[in-house]
C-alpha cells in the first residue's frame, strides 16, 4: 500500500522537527548552563591574570599598594585575591568587590582601583572558583560560598578594620553581593550593587525573548536561579543602587524593580543616564566616588543598635504593606517617600555637586554650576546633574528590545536542522523505492553539512559590543599608570590573615 505524503504527513514532520529541536536545546541548556553563564576563561588565552595585557596583570603595575592573598573556602577550595590598600588601611572601611561573569579579576582591576581611590577605601578583589588562579569549577552555590569565604577572611584579618566591611557587586557580582547581604547582613555595614539583574530567569527572557512562552520548560531544566529580587526583600541594611541608563545588557528597569522591592529603610539610588553596562563608573565622573563616600558615612552612622531595631520594625511593616497591596511599585512616589521619611531617624545631610567637572575618560562633560544644594536623605535619591549627570530613574523606563544573542545556540540549531533535512530526504527516497519508482538518491554533497570555522572573533562580530556573554572591557587606565610607575613592588603572598602589624611603607 503506498504511503500517504499529503499535508497531514508534512505537518507531522514539522511538529517532529520542532520537538527534536526543543529537546536538543533543553539538553544543551541542562548540560552547559554553567558554561553559558560563567565565562571564566574569557577572552581566550587570558585565563589567569599573568596572561593579561600589561597594566592589569597585577595592581603593582599600576603602582597600587596591595597584598596578594590566598583565601580558603569552607569546602576546601583556595581562591586567589588582591587586597588593594590605603596608606592607613586600618583607618578606612573595606569593600569586597564581586565582579561580573566574564574574565579574571585583572579585567576588573580598573573598576576596583577606581573605587579604592575615589571613595578612599580598601578593596578586596577576588576571583571566584574556577576563575584566574582560583581552584574549582564555578556554580551558583559555589560563588555564594566564595563570598562567605571572602567575608570570613576580612572578619578575621588584622590587615583591615573588620568592623566596617561593605559588599559591592557589578552585574553577576550584584547577585552574589545581595545573596551575601541577605544571609549575613548583620556582619556588613552596607551593600552597593551596580547594573545587576532581578533574576537569571529574567535575563534569559531578555537575551532570548521566545523563552517567555517556555517557562514550564525552564522550570524543569534551569538549575541556577540567582533570584535577587526575592532576596533583596530580606535586606535590612543600607543599600545603594547604581544604574546606567544606557545599559543594553541588563535593562535599567530591572534595577528599578530591585530598588522598589528592597525593604530596607535606608536605600539610595544613583542613576547615570549615559552609563553603559561596563562604564557607568566612568560616565558618572566624580559623582560616583563622592556618592559612595556619602553612602559609607551615612551607613556607618546608621549602624547603631537603635537604628537596627527601628529598621527591623520598619522593614516588617513595609513587608506587611507589600503583602497587602501585592505590588510595592504600585504605591505613588509621594507615599513611598512619606513612609520612608516617617520610619527613618537618620539625620538629613547636605550634598552639593562641584561647580563643574569633566569625565575625560568617557568623553562626557557635566556642568552643574547652577545646581542648588540638595538634601541627601534615605528617602531621596542621590543628587542629580541637570546636564547629563545622575537622575532618578522612573519605573516606566523601557527595557531594550528582546533579541537572541546566543549565537552558538543558533549555530547548533542550524546544524541540527540540516541533519534532520538529510534524514528526511533519505527517508523519502527509501519510501519511494518501496513503491517501485526509479528514484536516484541525491548525492551526499547536496546535504552534507557546510564547513564552519567557529572562532571567538567570529562570534564577537555577530554580537553587539558589551554582550552579556561577551562583555567589552575598558581600556587600561593609562593616566593612573603614568602617575604611578610600574616599578612598584609586588607584595608577597599572604596565606593567613592574622598579621600582627602592617608596615605602611611596604604596602
From TrEMBL:
Decide whether keyword Membrane is in the record. Answer: yes
Task: Report TM segments.
Answer: 12-32
- Region ranges (Disordered): 312-403, 478-507
From start to end residue, where is composition biased (Low complexity)? 479-492
Q: Where is the Serine aminopeptidase S33 domain?
A: 95-227
Molecular function terms from GO: palmitoyl-(protein) hydrolase activity
Q: What segments bear the compositional bias annotation Polar residues? A: 359-368, 387-403
Mind telling me what this protein is named? Answer: Serine aminopeptidase S33 domain-containing protein
Organism (species)? Eimeria mitis
Amino acid at each position: 500500500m503506498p504511503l500517504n505524503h499529503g499535508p497531514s504527513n508534512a505537518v507531522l514532520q514539522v511538529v517532529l522537527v520542532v520537538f527534536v529541536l526543543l529537546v536538543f536545546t533543553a539538553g544543551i541548556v541542562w548540560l552547559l548552563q554553567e558554561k553559558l553563564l560563567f565565562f571564566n576563561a574569557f577572552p581566550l588565552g587570558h585565563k589567569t591574570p599573568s596572561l593579561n595585557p600589561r597594566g592589569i596583570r597585577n595592581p603593582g603595575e599600576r603602582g597600587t599598594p596591595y597584598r596578594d592573598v590566598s583565601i580558603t573556602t569552607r569546602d576546601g577550595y583556595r581562591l586567589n585575591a588582591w587586597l588593594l590598600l590605603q596608606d592607613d588601611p586600618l583607618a578606612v572601611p573595606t569593600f569586597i568587590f564581586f565582579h561580573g561573569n566574564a574574565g579574571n579579576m585583572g579585567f576588573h582591576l580598573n573598576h576596583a582601583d577606581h573605587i579604592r581611590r575615589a571613595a578612599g577605601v580598601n578593596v578586596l578583589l577576588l576571583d571566584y572558583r574556577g576563575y584566574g588562579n582560583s581552584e574549582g569549577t564555578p556554580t551558583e552555590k559555589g560563588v555564594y560560598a566564595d563570598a562567605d569565604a571572602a567575608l570570613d577572611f576580612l572578619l578575621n584579618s588584622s590587615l583591615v578594620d573588620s568592623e566596617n566591611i561593605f559588599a559591592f557587586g557589578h552585574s553577576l557580582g550584584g547577585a552574589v553581593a545581595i545573596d551575601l547581604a541577605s544571609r549575613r547582613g548583620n556582619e556588613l555595614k552596607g551593600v552597593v550593587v551596580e547594573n545587576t539583574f532581578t533574576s537569571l530567569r529574567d535575563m534569559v527572557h531578555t537575551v532570548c525573548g521566545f523563552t517567555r512562552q517556555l517557562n514550564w520548560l525552564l522550570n524543569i531544566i534551569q538549575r541556577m536561579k540567582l533570584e535577587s529580587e526575592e532576596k533583596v526583600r530580606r535586606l535590612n541594611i543600607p543599600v545603594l543602587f547604581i544604574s546606567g541608563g544606557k545599559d543594553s545588557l541588563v535593562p535599567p528597569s530591572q534595577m528599578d524593580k530591585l530598588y522598589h522591592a528592597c525593604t530596607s529603610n535606608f536605600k539610595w539610588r544613583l542613576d547615570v543616564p549615559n552609563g553603559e553596562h561596563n562604564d557607568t563608573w566612568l560616565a558618572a565622573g566624580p559623582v560616583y566616588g563622592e556618592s559612595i563616600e556619602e553612602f559609607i558615612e551615612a551607613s556607618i552612622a546608621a549602624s547603631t543598635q537603635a537604628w537596627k531595631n527601628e529598621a527591623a520594625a520598619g522593614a516588617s511593616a513595609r513587608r506587611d504593606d507589600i503583602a497587602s497591596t501585592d505590588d510595592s511599585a504600585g504605591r505613588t512616589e509621594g507615599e513611598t517617600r512619606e513612609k520612608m521619611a516617617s520610619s527613618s531617624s537618620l539625620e538629613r545631610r547636605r550634598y552639593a555637586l562641584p561647580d563643574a567637572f569633566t569625565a575625560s575618560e568617557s568623553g562626557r562633560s557635566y556642568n552643574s554650576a547652577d545646581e542648588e544644594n540638595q538634601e541627601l536623605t534615605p528617602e531621596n535619591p542621590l543628587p542629580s546633574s541637570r546636564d547629563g549627570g545622575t537622575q532618578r530613574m522612573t519605573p516606566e523606563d523601557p527595557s531594550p528590545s528582546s533579541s537572541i544573542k546566543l549565537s552558538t545556540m543558533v549555530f547548533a540549531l542550524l546544524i541540527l536542522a540540516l541533519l534532520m533535512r538529510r534524514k528526511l530526504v533519505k527517508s523519502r527516497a527509501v519510501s519511494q523505492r518501496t513503491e517501485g519508482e526509479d528514484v536516484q538518491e541525491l548525492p551526499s554533497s547536496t546535504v552534507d553539512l557546510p564547513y564552519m570555522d567557529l572562532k571567538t572573533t567570529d562570534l564577537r562580530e555577530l554580537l553587539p559590543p558589551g554582550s552579556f556573554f561577551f562583555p567589552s572591557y575598558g581600556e587600561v587606565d593609562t593616566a593612573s599608570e603614568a602617575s604611578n610607575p610600574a616599578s612598584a613592588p609586588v607584595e608577597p603572598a599572604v596565606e593567613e590573615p592574622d598579621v600582627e602589624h602592617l608596615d605602611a611603607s611596604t604596602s
